[in-house]
Amino acid sequence: MLLKGNEALALAAIRYGVDAYYGYPITPQSEIMETLIAQKPWESTGMTVLQAESEVAAINMVYGTAATGRMAMTSSSGPGISLMQNGISYLCGANLPCLIVNVMRGGPGLGTISPSQADYFQATRGGGHGDYRTLVLAPSSVQEMADFVAIAFQWAFRYRNPAMILADGTIGQMMEKVTLPPFQQRLTASEVAKLHTWASTGRREGQQRNIVSSLDLDPAAMELKCLNREQRYQVAIDNDARHQAIHCDDAEILIVAFGSAARICTKTVQLARQQGIRAGLFRPITLWPFPAQALRQAAQHAQHILVVELNAGQMIDDVRLALTTQNNPTTTPNLPNTSNHPNTPTITHYGRLGGVVFTPEEILNHIKNIHTAPPTQTAPPTQTTPPTQTAPSTPPH
Amino acid sequence: MTCEILIAGFGGQGVLSMGKILAYAGIMNNKEVTWLPSYGPEQRGGTSNVTVVISDNAISSPIVDHFDVVIALNQQSLTKFESKVKPDGQLIYDTYGITTPPSRTDIRIYPIDAMQTAVKNNMQKMFNTIILGALIAVNPIVSINDVMQSLKKTLPERYHHLLPANEQALHIGFNL
Predict the structure, then answer these.
(1) Is B84 on the interface with A (CB under 8 A)?
(2) Which residues neighbour A296 within 8 Å (Cβ) at sequence distance 6 or greater?
(3) Is A240 strand, coil or helix?
(4) Among A13, A375, B12, B149, which residue's CB has the most CB atoms within a 10 Å radius?
């Protein structure tokens, strides 16, 4: 099938047996709800699809459905995701699973509707108040938009925590060939009650009241709850960080990019290799947990790490943390000690902002500048190239 | 082999639909495809464009800087994208309303009179199909048969009675 990323995600949600979608329209992700409404899954699988009166309402409807042990999801773009942060914090506080889809656009504020990756910090740092993280998957193809629905829900229920699919306008609006997952029945009420004993599924005789809440006024009890959450996060860090490595083994220049930027850089690497430049691409598939250990391995021969993002420099912080941290207790021990690293690589950033999308050739030209620059003249450790210094290319957007 | 194509014209002219038919035709021909629209305010008037990549292999970037083929359906698109054709690439444009024709000498330029031809044959609504026929004539990345299969797939059934006329339009475009 030839589908847009947004359409593929919506159809995959129906097929995966998701129980409810609540949302409020915003470009560039409106096709998610459009597709769901057009498919009328309430007539086939029994899935609820509801246009809420606002994003705030939508995320709180997700909370309600999640508290009953059901699979609930919402989707929006940056401005709407910001409105949802309070609800997301409450979902984390109450240990509730759900799927939140953010199809990013240029910002801040209402910004533009063009593709951007400027919500990386918001997605990976939590975004709302309190000590929490969301599990973040970054698709770079229409197929992954479909496939990540299942993974996100599996992780959300495994870790009892919201999971996020962080896409952007390019991945949401683009059409590609896609194979949709097979149909799966929604769980029955008794299956949910049996599987998810934490959920409020109706009080039966002899049962205690089951209150799903993020509130506990006893600091000692609250600390235990928070520590329990941190333990679950540690399991996720140890087991579920995912990445894709392209030509990393002998890469002198290692590009680190996610989502649509990684797609663009895949071509940059192909072009660079054709011209004899040993470039490679490391793509974090999970942005949180960040695949730090895999990145350390991929960067072993790199002289230069170029972090390429459609933002002013956000993931570069995680790249720097991964490549400079020693004995970080939150990562796996026995890492290559970066102080003994034969070449401590230079880490720089290349970004376009506000909905402008770079092209493969634009990144290639930037790489060539790095490649030909003698070591003494390399850029300072971190440098976001301002648009005025880049080639005045006009992508077709 | 990979072919990177840009189609640009007025919003509402059917630029995105043409791209979709072309992408589907690629699938009918067992190719990998990506279709990336300009989804901004353009689609509510002004110029609109779509990038279609058709390839034998997995497609890396759906975002392309320079194209093997540019199809420009108005003056603004022609002016904007003439420089975006790869050297020795192909530029197809509809001559209707063009005041400044392209001037590059390192690309292959195909002016076609699709608008007038459409009017002459009473096929105004198949203007796009005529253009697709012209594309196939200069770059057989897909065949007329692939496009017909694609139309069967993309057109709602209530319009299937228009398929023979579309096939005719493809041939008219092919022979322009």
Answers:
(1) yes
(2) A322, A323, A335, A336, A338
(3) coil
(4) A13
Name all domains of chain A by residue range, CATH numbers in brackets.
Answer: 2-177 (3.40.50.970), 244-372 (3.40.50.920)
pLDDT at A247 over 90: yes
* pLDDT tens digits, A195-218: 999 999 988 888 888 999 999 999
Each domain of chain B, given as residue ranges in start order, spans 2-174
Does B69 score more than 60 pLDDT? yes
Asked if B169 and B52 count as a contact pair (C-beta separation under 8 A), the reply is no
Tell me the mean pLDDT in the region A135-151.
Answer: 98
- CB-nearest to A174 from B8, B35, B60 is B35
Instruction: Please name the member of B35, B37, B63 whose beta carbon is closest to the beta carbon of A395.
Output: B63
B13 part of contact set with chain A, CB < 8 Å: no
How far apart, in whole angstroms, are the C-alpha atoms of residue A388 and residue A393?
A: 11
Nearest CA in chain A to B42: A397
Under the banding of pLDDT at 50, 70 and 90, the label for residue A117 is very high
Which of the residues A143, A175, A267 would you substitute to probe the B interface, choosing the one with the greatest number of B C-beta atoms within 10 Å? A175
Global ipTM: 0.92
Q: Is B37 on the interface with A (CB under 8 A)?
A: yes
Least confident of A288-292, A383-387, B30-34, B126-130: A383-387
Phi, psi of A19 (to 5 degrees): -85, -35
Beta strand spans in chain A (E): 2-4, 20-23, 48-51, 72-76, 98-104, 135-137, 162-168, 175-177, 243-246, 253-256, 279-284, 286-288, 304-309, 346-351
Of A177, A362, A396, the CB nearest to B49: A396
| Contacts A264 to B, Cβ<8 Å | 60-61, 63
Q: Do A359 and B81 touch (CB under 8 A)?
A: no
Among B20, B33, B61, select the one facing A263 at the smallest CB separation: B61
* Six token digits for residue A229: 């959450």
Contact B34 A174 (CB under 8 A): yes
Least confident range from A87-96, A144-153, B148-157: namely B148-157
Amino acid at B22: L
pLDDT band at A324 (very low <50, low <70, confident <90, very high): confident
pLDDT score of A222: 96
- Other C-beta atoms closer than 10 Å to the C-beta of A387 total 14
Average pLDDT over every residue of A127-152: 97
In angstroms, how far is the first alpha carbon of chain A from the final one? 25
Is A38 part of the contact surface with chain B (CB cutoff 8 Å)? no
Tokens representing A384 are 């976001």
Instruction: Select the residue of B6, B27, B49 nearest A2 (Cβ to Cβ).
Output: B27
B137 touches A: beta carbon within 8 Å = no
